[in-house]
Structures
1.
Amino acid sequence: MSSRRVLWVSTSTETRGGVATYVRTMQGTPLWDLWHIRHVATHRNGSVASRLTAFIRGTGSFVRELVVRRPSVVHLHTSSHGSFARKSFLAWLSRSLRVPVVIHVHGSAFKEFYADSPPLVRRYIRVTLEAAEAVIALGDKWAGALRQIAPKARIVIVPNAVAPRIAVSQPGPGELVHVLFLGEVEERKGAFLLLDAWSQLADGPVRGAADLVVAGGGAVDKARNRVKELGIADQVRVTGWIAPGEIEPLLSGSHVLVLPSAFEGQPMAVLEAMAHGLCVVATDVGGVSDLVGSCGVLLPVGDLGSLVDALREVISDTERRATLGSCAFRRMRERFDVNLTWRALDNLYEELGR
């Protein structure tokens, strides 16, 4: 049996969200076979009972892998609250058996989670991070926040990544512009702010020039009712949850991605949009600016007027929209290509798994 073995732990790849998307993306890279990676899920969507069952079963699988297979490295993907509680337990279990641990922090509100925790919990978080052989941050901003939380931790920056795609052709003057929202349909993602913004555009230059697809699970019925109330049903379609296999054609058929979230980490939706050459309009939160840089339109959180103006601009200004889409496409290729990411993890495993 090969000595190059890594054990990944995260939510199920069948769940919704960026972590599951990231794991599925990495499963398609050479890293998976080079290190004979096994994946254990300790969480899945559903009721409290089903989530508890997933954790119990996942922990059992984890212990078997740890004892029988003895991985070179344990790679734990975590966010905040319950996710960190689960992964930290597994981190200490791994350390008790002298297996190197990598803690990969995905949670967009990890800094707030730490700040709002009681003193003893904050100390536990800090000690857990500092005990890991490496803590992965998604970008410079996150690395700075994690260093404030755990000054003695070894922080390594490995951004999220996507596989290269083919850039879409941006429509010219007079052609219909397809705008896409991709994510959970809820207030914190800005879905309802977006609908309000669209209603302000509906009787202006947007009518007949653009349409909007709101794709994702969550408060779907509420969103559909809001669309009817605002009188924009002829321009807006709310799809509900989109299966992973349906996301690619949805992105390929769009021209603008809009994500006016209040909280984000490094959203995979933005990376996927950049990989397709879409023009990105998003709020400047979390690691979004690390992804987009100057290759998109970044907005303050909750600012309806700014969102309306940004949408009006990218829909009506063909050259601006095409320039931003091309810039985002190049930036993704240069910085967030999955072929760069898997090699960074390969180097880290080589160092830790000796």
2.
Amino acid sequence: MPQYANTPGVQINEIRLGPPPIAGVGTSRAGFVGVAPKASRFVNDPRLVTSAEQFRAMYILADPTVNNDTDATTSTDLSRAVLGFFANGGTSCYVVNATSSTAANAVVAIKLLEPIDDIAIIAAPGYTQATVYAELKGQAERTGDRFALLDPPTGKVTNLTSLRPPNGADRPTDSSFTAFYYPRIMVGPDLRGDSPTPAAITPIGHIAGVYARVDGSRGVHKAPANVAILGALGVEHALTDADQDVLNQDGVNILRIFPEGVVIWGARTLLASNAADRTYMYVNVRRLVNYIEESLQEGLRWAVFEPNTLPLRKQITRAVRGFLDGVWRDGGLFGATAEDAYYVRFPELYNTPTERSLGKLVLEIGLKVAYPAEFIIIRIGVLTQDE
């Protein structure tokens, strides 16, 4: 009980009424795996990096405490990706400097990212092996709180069917927790030993930065597409509308050259057109639901072990509705009113006396997500003079 003074007068005692509000989790912190320019630094040791300058100090520049140490002079897929991430709007990422460039060591490094809860995007820049694809995909699906960006194949694909299901040699396996981009981008030199002519590199780090930029400016519900990639001078393989017409339906996101530069011109997860469940065929839908799920999971932790009563249901409902109202107001849910956009209920079918005696409380939430307007269709007719 609070202690009150014995002096007559008005006394203030601040208290919290109702459950704590649910705060949204972060959506743009990335996790990158690869070999750093200074290959011996922090090997298989996930390190949080919050700026390009910090990355350079940790993985590129000479260590002033080591005699005769020198700066790295040649970029790697990892350094290109991390620097591209920060150049495109990324603010923080975890970096794992793998033991070597082999796929097996990349898989080991990817596994080190799994226990880190605040990672929302994972990538292994430059790796296109099936085992690496599978580990990225598997980790995203197992955790349910992150999204994997998968590298395009090296070089120009001469036959685009290799990127399509069911047997495309250059295509990863389908998953709504991954996105697959093609082709690689052209960039200038980063370090003094790089070739002065533009080089083709993985776009994944730059794209992760675009994800972070769009999340920060618009929100995770906005598709990370129709956005220019900063620092990209061109693409390794220029594609036409006809090429994209074939690939888009199978979840291959194309990087195109438009007047504003190299633009991400696709917003689909890696699902083929014949996938049984197309609910999560758009990147922003998958990531929005990830965001809502993890925010609720963390934001409702206060309710665990509370008495399973009707007042508890009311408290949970108020907290969840307060959070989802914000998602709706930001444009993440479709509906003229919040009631149109979502519902929150405790179905009696799943909350029977037997289930309550087992310590269970089942909350059901229905969402009307905002899908991207991928196809803008204009119907034009010419009126005759007397109409």
